[in-house]
Task: inverse folding
């Protein structure tokens, strides 16, 4: 059975979470800037006065939608990382939020921001 992480392990996870948080923020800033730049160019019209082909418009719309979905996913992960840091601060890191049992260290190493033990994660993923 998994145990609650020890002090030195908690520090390892804290640093990993802070690093992940910084990387996600950087990714979000970059994607947001890219999406805004694309909107500025498209929002002001075609700069070359050459009519746009409908396929080009469709591609641009797809790219923008894809970028917005990536931003949404990254924001969700960033929220999970922030929640994990909060659980670390209050002494509940490494415990499943559903059943209260310890989360395995292997799972925490793979997904340090996880909220659930593997058994509860399976239940949640299956809609239970």
Result:
């Amino acid at each position: 059975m998994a145990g609650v992480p020890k002090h030195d392990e908690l520090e390892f996870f804290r640093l990993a979470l802070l690093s992940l948080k910084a990387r996600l923020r950087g990714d979000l800033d970059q994607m947001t800037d890219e999406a805004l730049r694309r909107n500025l160019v498209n929002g002001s019209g075609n700069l070359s006065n050459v009519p746009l082909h409908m396929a080009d418009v469709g591609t641009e719309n797809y790219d923008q939608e894809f970028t917005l979905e990536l931003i949404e996913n990254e924001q969700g992960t960033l929220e999970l990382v922030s929640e994990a840091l909060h659980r670390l601060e209050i002494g509940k890191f490494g415990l499943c939020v559903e059943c209260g049992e310890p989360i395995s260290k292997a799972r925490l190493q793979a997904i340090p921001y996880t909220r659930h033990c593997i058994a509860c994660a399976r239940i949640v993923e299956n809609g239970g």
